[in-house]
Amino acid sequence: MRNFRMKTLWITLTLFSMFFGAGNLIFAPFLGKEAGSQSALALLGFLCTAVLMPIITILVLSKFKDGYSMLARISKPFALFFIGLIYLLIGPCIAIPRTATTSYEMLGWLLPANIWSQLLYSAIFFMGAYFVALHPSHLKDVLGKWLSPILLVLVVVLCASALFSPSQIASPSLEYLNHSFAKGIKEGYQTMDILAAYCFGNVILLNIQSEGIVKKQEVRKTLLFASVGAGVLLAGLYSLLAMSGMLHSYDLRACTNGAQILTELAGRSFGLFGNVLVSLIFLIACFNVCSGLLSCVSSYFAQRIPSCSYRAWLILFTLFSAALSIFGLDSILAISAPILNVLCPIAIFFVLYGIVQKP
User: Fold this and answer.
1) In CATH, 2-356 is 1.20.1740.10
2) What φ, ψ does residue 86 adopt, rounded to 5°?
3) Mean pLDDT, the chain, as a whole number?
4) Which residue ranges make up each domain of the chain?
């Protein structure tokens, strides 16, 4: 039993790390700062779409093995198109390049601001992510057993310092004044984790099986526990981050995004070391998501187009993402972000469809 619990813990931390990226870090503290005294209700709405729906999505899709298998019941060509589009947009066209650019920007206090510095950083960042993603069934050995625990400790330390030195809670901004719950739902929706959940299932199953858990019932049990556990971790950290923003909302009213809030809070509590702390948090969170997404996207396309190996797909997506992170991310975002906003409600609809369908 103890062995099973430890295996489930590693899978839980791996799944958590694949969800908890830089975007997730910055939404909650900004919500707390903007919602002010209405933060509790806003956070509840946020958790519905940023935690509950993604976890439900993973569990529903696992009934059919994955999203493609579920949608193939309706139409195989549509399943190929829709799931492929999600993988490309969530992966190499948006989320993966942004992990490098975001973490690089958070190291701006340390690194020189020029193209050569960014090129070198991106090369090192993506090379590391490539080697971690090279063995998708072993993601838990890096993300679950090492990087996720470190990330959790760092975020808790940062939030604890903010929670134990509160200042003044501001009144909610106009957007949160009368519709805080609805606004929280919208903010959680913007994390796009519902779409990300479509991508994670196969790789998580590989990691479960690599732990020697192969019986169908045991795999489902492990996935259930890991999904719920990851959801609890996400909800807990989001709550801490939102409370940190809320308790200092009056003093932080000039901040325009969550990254500024976290940097300001860290600086107040830890001085110069605060920059190191926040940079490490963003670096680890971004690296975890980058490695996980590279693995998921490459696995999917290797399954759908087996004439090209997993390693070949991984190299292709790594190089493409690295190039996009330096040269063309803004233009791609301008095109792809509206598409993602359209895909999310469709993805939610198909999850609801999957709930009522038999496997």
Assistant:
1) yes
2) -60, -45
3) 92
4) 2-356
In the chain, pLDDT over 90 holds for what percent of residues? Answer: 74
Distance, in Å, from the CA atom of 158 to the CA atom of 151, rounded to the nearest integer, reads 11
With a cut of 80, say whether residue 204 has pLDDT above it: yes
What value does the mean pLDDT take over residues 107-115? 86
Give the pLDDT score at 170: 92
192 Rama class: left (phi>0) / alpha (psi -120 to 50) / beta: left
Identify the three-state secondary structure at position 98.
helix
Residue 315's identity, in one-letter code, is: I
Q: Which two tokens stand for residue 242?
A: 């939102």
Residue 336 contacts residue 89 (beta carbons within 8 Å): yes
- Are 289 and 117 contacting, i.e. CB atoms less than 8 angstroms apart? no
How much is the average pLDDT of 182-207?
90
Distance CA 310, CA 306 (A): 8
Tell me what pLDDT residue 22 has.
77
For the residues of 24-70, what is the DSSP string, one character each?
HHHHHHHHHHHHGGGHHHHHHHHHIIIIIHHHHHHHHHHTTSSHHHH
Nearest to 58 by CA among 296, 294, 224, 233: 224
pLDDT at residue 332 greater than cutoff 70: no
Which one-letter DSSP state was computed for residue 130? H
Distances (CA, A) of 157 to 231, 237, 283, 289, 337: 20, 11, 16, 21, 33
Q: pLDDT digit string (tens) for 6-46?
A: 999 999 999 999 999 877 889 999 999 999 999 999 999 99
CA–CA dist 350, 348 (Å, integer): 5
Written in H, E and C, the secondary structure of 166-212 is CCCCCCCCHHHHCCHHHHHHHHHHCCCHHHHHHHHHHHHHHHHHHCC
Residues in the chain: 359
